[in-house]
Amino acid sequence: MYPHLPDDISIEWLVSEARKGNQQAADRLFDTFYRRIRHFFLKDLHVSIETAEELVQDTFEKAWRKLPTLHDCVRFEAWLYAIARNVALDHIRKLKRRKVPTPLDPEFDLADGAPQVESVVLAEMHIREMWDAMPARQRECLYWYYMENLTMEEVAVRLQLGADTVKAYISKARVKLREGMYSSEKEQVDVKSKRCRA
């Protein structure tokens, strides 16, 4: 049995202990990040509190299973948010599979519905591919700057980087995303033109 944990323990120590099987450390990590991850789901997915709590549970279950694969304890928070984003994407995919439009739906257009859904799915897959291909540091800087609305200085402190380095990472990531989006748009135009000629 582990003794009661004091309040002023670092996240890195808690992660290290949780990996060794310290349940109190794992519980403390859950308590520390529970509200933040729930807020992430409520804000980004606009789901009910009940659904958000289910997604939080799913996120932590995946995190505990994958915890031995996390070699850098300092990156736990960013790593946990990456898992939460994957859980969010899985949830969105499940909703899309369940929602089958019918001709009784006044907004459902049999002729135009399929291409629109196809475009959305292709765009989502392309964005995910670009995100996964991005170097970890660029991805982290981009996430904290845009998703969590931190300033570049705050991102620098959180990731223990220089402010100029953070600025450079974000700038490079923006360029790569723009280039990726432009190529995606060109591909979509090519696909549409091919369909018109067919």
From TrEMBL:
* Keywords from the UniProt entry: DNA-binding, Sigma factor, Transcription, Transcription regulation
Protein name as catalogued = RNA polymerase sigma factor
Record domain RNA polymerase sigma-70 region: where: 34-98
Q: Which family does it belong to?
A: Belongs to the sigma-70 factor family. ECF subfamily.
Q: Name one Pfam family in it.
A: Sigma70_r2
Q: Which domain of life is it from?
A: Bacteria
Q: Where is the RNA polymerase sigma factor 70 region 4 type domain?
A: 127-177
Question: Which NCBIfam families does the record associate with it?
Answer: sigma70-ECF
Q: Which GO terms describe its molecular function?
A: DNA binding; sigma factor activity
Q: Name one GO biological process term.
A: DNA-templated transcription initiation
